[in-house]
């Protein structure tokens, strides 16, 4: 359990093994400012090393998951400043380094950096009013936090191009049909509850197998098929060295419920 308090996010632990991070800059529709990201990165780092957290849910408000990078903060940046401090790199670093699964529960706007943040998570669930988009083109720029890469992989070239070139928003129904969101819910509350349910299921498994599963799936995006399959097999072999593999398989054979040790 994290005892830290933050200015721009809320942390709670609503289910066993599950931590909920709520982005909390409601008046600015959760625009992703540097202070917000610094809170988020610090919370993710704390939760990732906390044994009582085994799965994380990330959400915003019912109106807005996150309306993008903070345009007011960014508007006067020079090239030298942006390049000099590698603006935005630190955003994706912590979230990509988080070894525990993160489920994004998206209600309302997930635009620009908000859509990119959702796509950095491992699973996206959408509420009925979710609106995904990369509107950077309307600001005279392009996605800068992985949107062009992750959206392409999520929905294919033609749809990704249309979204990025026109800046149009994509609603929950299409996001679900296209596989950008794994599931679409009838109400914003159901979206968050659904994410917490799934997180509780994941948190109920052995932590080492969960970590390995996330690692091998993510590895697929980085390498070709034969390399990826080989990596998966090696990690699979490695899990025979864990206590939980014995616990899980012996419980199945004895028709008992496994008591995970996370070792
Ligand atoms: N940055 C800073 N402030 C933002 C913001 C953003 N991305 N999005 C919304 N806000 C602020 C508004 O300025 C407004 O603040 P004030 O009350 O102080 O004026 C407040 O949030 C409420 O917003 P609106 O009044 O605009 O609310 P609305 O309901 O009329 O419209 C919206 C909602 C369509 C989402 C509209 O706010 C909007 O278009 N926002 C910008 C979306 C956008 O372009 N995002 C991409 C940013 S670029 C980026 O993210 C780069 C990258 O790849 C990392």
UniProtKB/TrEMBL annotation:
Keywords: Fatty acid metabolism, Lipid metabolism, Lyase. GO terms for molecular function: enoyl-CoA hydratase activity. The keyword Lipid metabolism applies. It is an enzyme of class 4 (lyase). Its EC number is 4.2.1.17. One of its GO terms (biological process) is fatty acid beta-oxidation. One of its GO terms (cellular component) is mitochondrion. Belongs to the enoyl-CoA hydratase/isomerase family. This is Probable enoyl-CoA hydratase, mitochondrial.
